[in-house]
Amino acid sequence: MAAPASPAHAAELDAELAALGRAVQDLPYEQRVAWVLRELEGMGYAEIAEIAALQHAQGSARTPDAVYDQAREAPVVPSRPRSAPPPGPPPAPSRRSRRGPVWLVLVVLLAVVAALAGWYFGIARFTVTPGVIDLSRSAAQTKLDQSGLHLKVTGTAYSETVRKGFVVSTDPAAGDRVAKKGTVGAVLSLGPERHQVPDVRGRTLDDAQQMLDDARLAYGDEKDRYDEKVPKGQVVTSDPVPGTSLRRDTAVDIVVSKGPKPIAIPDFTGRRADVASQRLGKLGFKVDNTQVNSDTVALGRVISQSPASGNGVKGDVVSLVVSKGPVLVEVPNVRGMGLQAATDRLQGAGFRVQVRHASLYVGVMYVVGTDPSGGTKARKGSTVIVSIV
To answer: Does residue 107 share a domain with residue 1?
Structure first.
């Protein structure tokens, strides 16, 4: 990974060099320089120690009597001495005049080392990260190897634009600084992120919403519709249908059943039973017919219906009571019987009796015929005409 520029390293090095200076202040100059260079190598600054030693060697090769002008980068040779004054008593030796040049050289040396350290830690040890986006792992590794860098796969991520297995991003990014011989982290593509719509059929709406969330898809709208098979409140299907691959957070609509579609029930009371059964069957109802006798409703007509109004759904049962007509009773054969006996017999069978004189009536009061005739059937309670002579 990229190492940050290190002004802190340079400051730390300055402090260490200052400590070295205090530690060697009583040593001879050459011993001081050698001791400082050894300490720099021991602290891990071998490259800096090597550069400092080179600078010291070049400085030692200059004219001993010359003073080095740093501004002009050239030695300054002192002018010829003028005629000396008469000799006098020798001056007293000065300890300060002996140490001054030594400390000056040491300070210059330390300044050079500090500058070189700042340059090395801030600039020299870095290189530029090459761009490897949209390259395969092997191609990215080859390109980094050419720059003296290493590749490390640090993760994976979905991408709509980068193919699966190719580099999506790097750390450091292309163009950023990275330590020489350092490592560049790479994230490889998983390809486009797609999620399948879960099968939410038969679930409640709350369950369907949770399943969409677990599948990293979004809940869209609720759509209600009638369904003859799915109970009310349960999911009929989804839109898009289950199994469809979608991008993450794509909205999915849920279709919820309102139960079977209600059907208006028509009333067929008094109408022909066969027509009623046919019409109700086409509407999706089941028809239950019951036949009974009726003195008021004609044969084959609907006497009553249940339910006769309101709404139903397919498969509901509608009951019809269908007339078989009136109850028919066999007319007793009373021919040849006396009027009173014939009347009792007919009334006992449930008929009313009406007496009529025959054309040959002579007053003997015997039955010579009935209408309807004996042995036939007639509606119970109807009138039987009795002819007597």
So the answer is: yes
Conformation bin of residue 133: beta by default, left when phi > 0, alpha when psi is -120 to 50: beta
DSSP 355: E
47 and 144 assigned to the same domain? no
* Choice between 87 and 356, residue whose per-residue pLDDT is larger: 356
Token code pair at residue 58: 């070049």
CA distances from 32 to 38, 83, 387 (A): 10, 38, 168
DSSP 122: I
- The string of pLDDT tens digits covering residues 224-269 is 999 999 999 999 999 999 999 999 999 999 999 999 999 999 999 9
The pTM (predicted TM-score) of the whole model is 0.49
pLDDT confidence bin for 207, thresholds 50/70/90: very high
* Contact (Cβ atoms closer than 8 angstroms) between residue 337 and residue 345: yes
Distance of CA 213 to the CA centre of its chain: 5
User: Do 271 and 180 fall within a single domain?
Assistant: no
Q: With contact defined as beta carbons under 8 Å apart, do 265 and 310 qualify?
A: yes
What domain range is 148 assigned to? 127-189
Q: What is the number of domains present in the chain?
A: 5
Q: Which residues pair with 169 in a beta bridge?
A: 187
